[in-house]
Fold these 4 entries.
Entry 1:
Amino acid sequence: MQLVIRILIVLLIVIFHTAQSHAVWVWTPETNKWINPKYSVKDTPGEQLEYALEFFGAEDYETGIKELKKLIKHYPKAREAPDAQYKIGEAHYKLGQPFTAFKEYQKVIDMYPFSDLSVKIVEQQFQIGMEALEGIDEEKGFFKTFTGEIVNVADVFRQVIKNAPYSNIAPEAQYRIGLYLMEKMEYQTSRNEFEKTMNDYPETEWAKLAKYQIAVVDAKRSTGAAYDQKVTEAAISEFKEILEENPDADLSEDAKRQIAKLREKEAENNYMIANFYEKQKNFKSAKIYYQIIVDEYQETKFAQKALTKIQDLAIKEK
């Protein structure tokens, strides 16, 4: 009997020291139970939310997130649950994890679609997209946060549109997708997104800006074809249409500059063709293209060059 008592005493001592060293289980007289503080939750969701937000005040966001997750797990249908999920997103944003914050904010909309926080969340998601757009890596075409997160800007703005397709920020979100893709030099895809802006939101200022950006995209695309004038001609035509529709707008001044650059490029292309024929000793064809420059592109730097070439060819033809 004494041996049994001794064994029980030893076991109790071992259990006591283990509990003390690891602080795993604690006896609570209020509940008359052993509890694990690591996984315990307050008696009400309101108390748990208040407790979790105390860590926000101390800027201990990681612990705050853990406590907010407890609230959602134990009180998923409580009116505090959407607030807890929202605060999780906010904590990740403060930790420099904007894309994780974006996804945590989205959970509020997905899990609690009737929450009053929806409008505020969409605005914050849009802001995350704008910050990402401004910080795009020009070479790789994405935004990387200081914590290593990679943000796909187009996905952010598309989700904003999906969440609030009839909101005031949806047209701009659609327009920004086009800008993002243009920065990545995906010109045809960006052009499609700008056209979608015009088709889906025709009465907004963003439709007008999208129309202008389509002309810019075509101007950029024209630089890739040395002899094909079709894209360049289309871009000039688009800029001229913008000038007619907005004669006094700021866009018109830039449109004029763009037209001048494109006409310079057209003249250069004609000069290159003429020069090619000249090297082939096809002086007649060369002269035709040089003459086009003199007649139609007098304002460009190639006009005088072309005139000189015509004079030289006249000597060669004798």
Entry 2:
Amino acid sequence: MNRLLGHKVRDPTENLDFFDAEMDECTDSYVQYIFEEISRYADSVVMVEQRLDFSKYVPDGFGTGDCVIVTDEVFTVIDYKHGKGVAVDAEHNP
């Protein structure tokens, strides 16, 4: 995604223990989706790996948005997940 935004990046797969064609295809689709979202608005601010603090609503609540897009009309948080078969329960999950 940083490459899409014009930033210099190193090969993110070089230090991965596991990487395959399916993962490559999924991340390409993810980047394409973000590109389409950014293209919808002329003046958008795009933040990558942005820390999000929602402790006003949940005590000590925070997270990281993989991609946050801010425009005059819309605030979009996109969080990529690639854990096929790995269930994460939202209830009682701090």
Entry 3:
Amino acid sequence: MLFRPGELYSSTEIQTHLQVGNAGGIRVSIQDKSVRRIAILTAVPTAKVASENPYHDRVEGNILVYSAGGLQGDQSLGGVNKRIVEQLASAFPIYGFRLNQSRRKAEAKRWEFIGLLQFLRVYPDAQVDRNGVLRKVWLFEFRICSGFTGVCASSEAEIMANAIRDYSFDANNEERVGASEPEINILDVKANAEEIERARAKIFSLQPRDFELLVKTALEASGFSDVETTRYTQDGGIDVNARASKSHWPIAGMRVQVQAKRWLHTVGRREVAELRGSLEPFASGAVVTTSYFSRAALFEATAPGRQPIVLVDGYHFASIAREFGVVSA
């Protein structure tokens, strides 16, 4: 069978033609004790699911953010989860499918093939579970590769290898980092971190435009003047403009231009460089996100000989929003 990006397939077709299991979100095909291929199955959340779980799996641009299993308690990185990482060494194909409709009929063609997936990174995060308790979770980031008309067992290895080869990615330079990694906050300031993470969960539930408006409100609450959002589309990479007020006396009057990223996936070097290129002369720039920044992004923001860019990750912004009362825990 030829799997074509954008077309729908049944669970039985996925199981039979890819020779994977029939249950679970990560389905592995093994040959001679090695991974032959993996199928990743995710879903478009209903409004109810999205409101109850703001951390739900997301497709953002060409990135799929996929959560490990378990809605309560700390998650572990074991079992089939560990198999995904092996793609870095053996480049086996990972098929991505997204459920857009009910699971009621297994034979119905309800699974959209979104493309082959290139594993980029897995990292720990801190989230509030359904009982309101702070816990450690694991998130996977995949690049969605769809620059082909179709893929089948006879062509999958070549298509996957070409997709990986043609994409420049340095796992060391693009390692995700941020102030709110569990090793720092859960152990050191757990009580405070729980309240801040509840605030971050509320921010995650916002639509991207509403997040821009929240950044505007937070700037106003912290004393900036002339704060305004730009057009939602064709904004040139600038989402909010502001000016430092007299209370920011060492930089009073300075033009501040902010890019707001309501993302679950990592903000990388490219986004930081693009913002710098969009700034007005003599303006100061900042990227504010609900997620985190890669090491390459941090380096780009402070690279010698370049205009510095301020980076505010999701944990930091949630604490600011909570401090100024624009988001409650």
Entry 4:
Amino acid sequence: MDNLELLSEYTLFLKEEKQKGKKVVAFISHDNIPEELLDAAGFIPLRLMFAGNDELMDASHDYLSPSTCAFAQSCIGLFSTKPNHFRFLDLVDYFIVSNHCVSDICASEIISKYFNIPRLNFYLSYTKNENSLKYFKFELLDFKDQLEKIIGIEIKNEALMDSIKKYNNFKKKLLEFNNLNIRGSEKLRILQKAILYGPIFLPELESYTLKFSENQIQNSKDLKDVIITGCSVFLNDYLIELIEEAGGNVISFDTWIGNNYYYQIFEETVINLTKNPFDLLVRRFENNLYGDHSVPNFLENKVSQIEKICQNYLEKTGKKLRIINHIIKFCDHISLMSAYLKEQLQEKGFPVLNLERDYSRANRGQLSTRIEAFLEMV
């Protein structure tokens, strides 16, 4: 299935859900939005995870400076131009304004204001301490109040706990699928579709897991194995294609559309011993040490995590992983930390390519040359 077919299917899915009376809540993709609360309230979470192109980026410049994250530009461009395969954006009922980064805030506020989509607010602390955990719980309860005002009924703790269990099981299955030794393009295609649809995709995910478990790569000596960290690789992006054309194979996605999502799993004993579901969501936020909302030790945690992944892979396969730090141009989080991340990992003997780019088609040849040179050099 190509992305155009996926987007066409997704449009039909959202229309069917809307006919059932459900509301669609969109948000710019990051790893701390409580999807379980949206699900418990009967909403459809729509995670914006679509890469852009020249036209989408250009369309945003009436609203936002060109020196803004290319992904945020693309999100605005999608709502501004509504390309044919994104007509499902007309079905969005609410938009969450959150503060994953400056571009997230700006783009979300612009989309809500200029395209007349009612906003919901959900703000986060960048720090991890006792006060920030209290603040996060306060935001969860406030978010719950916002949703209850829309639906006119109380969101019961039992309903929220059921949603937490549902998403927890879904993420476990995603992790199981991620551990399969298959081509990175195939893996990403399924991961993207799964995260876009959510737990309703579980039967199809299990089917894919069974199918690919019987068709894993048996002899990958000629492949140059890669881990991608930094910014996510979104739907309609050609980056993985360039890596595979250069002889590489992405075995792990250390990003929002990847580890940061499906590693947020609770043990069954923790769920069973916790009476208040909001305490579980706070605990997940506290344990989310590898997302870039983890001050002051994000970089140290990230370096440690990547080092562990690389060492485990070396012990398992005898092969050294190459690291591509994917930086979407003007990303105020990842770009500022890229030099330090590369320095720390290279000191530990891990090869790193800081790959900064936007979604312009004109950059494709240059990106291809850089990736090929990096994979050949190591």
